[in-house]
Amino acid sequence: MPAANNAGVLQNAAWEKLTDEFGVDHLNKLADLQMFFMPQGEHGSAYAIMPSGISVYGDYWDGTGVLMHEVGHNLGMSHSSENGEEYGDESCLMGDGHAETGGPFTCYNGAKSWQMGWYNSRSYDYTIENGIWKGRLIGQVDYSNPNDVTSKVVLKLNSPGSIDYFVMFNRIKAGTTESQNLVMVVRSDIEADPWAGSDLVAKLGAGQSTSLNYFHLWDSLEVTVNEINLNANPAYADVTVQLKCVVNCGTNPAMIGATLDTWTGIGGTSIADLMSGTNNLANTPNKSVHLMDLLEGPTNTGDNYGSLMKGWLRPPVSGDYKFWIASDDNGELWLSSDDNP
Q: The domain containing residue 21 runs over which residues?
């Protein structure tokens, strides 16, 4: 190998040697990833070529975070920023890479995880038509935990524009350098631009919330962490997402009507059976529709299911009102001055 203080020269020489040795015209015919490790002092850090399987490592070749950062580029992931710093999101491997051998333990953030499709079976796509979404998020580390098969790992908030938001519970049991056991909110236009980066916009603990301003026209989307339970198995974060009206609240289609959530596989006939079968409504519904013209659910559609119809009530004038409901089997009407009846 020629002596030269140039990682590219060394890489090309190694490439030619390998293709000659194995009799191929391209290393992709031998392996999906080609990782080149430079002698000490030849290259300070590391880089990857996108899109390709090539990554080159210098003095920090034994850092787990550095290796997975560059492999992330090979897989098509761009950097994860925070507050304008390109590598600022240290909760994600595509942020500030770490050179320590064997750690710290860090994963990819919500935007990257959604991009890779690794947790598709445990992801949920929210749109404004869903109205209010309430559910539990578990960490990537508990993706295969048999004690919970309904909670989500990635929550994608689909905005009408190109930039969407991704919510994850940063459940890392030890070693992470940023926001351990908090709910992370990042934004990215990865769906429109496959090479787009992501930006960390919120880190939320129990009882905290963030407003995503102008999510739909003038209206904001509020993400609230109701509870974080680290003693449960698996640990979880209970989260509520809802659109907050700012202007034209009486005519905004997204704020009119109600949401009808339905859970299937619920036995019994009482409200207690519904609450027990849905983990007090924390489980994600099997179906969720937005009702506009008539606050009425379908009839004669099946057995062993339960439903919840929810929405905001805006009385036109102050006064006394009478409410009535009809249900089969049992039903209840809950009212409150806030979003927790």
A: 7-76
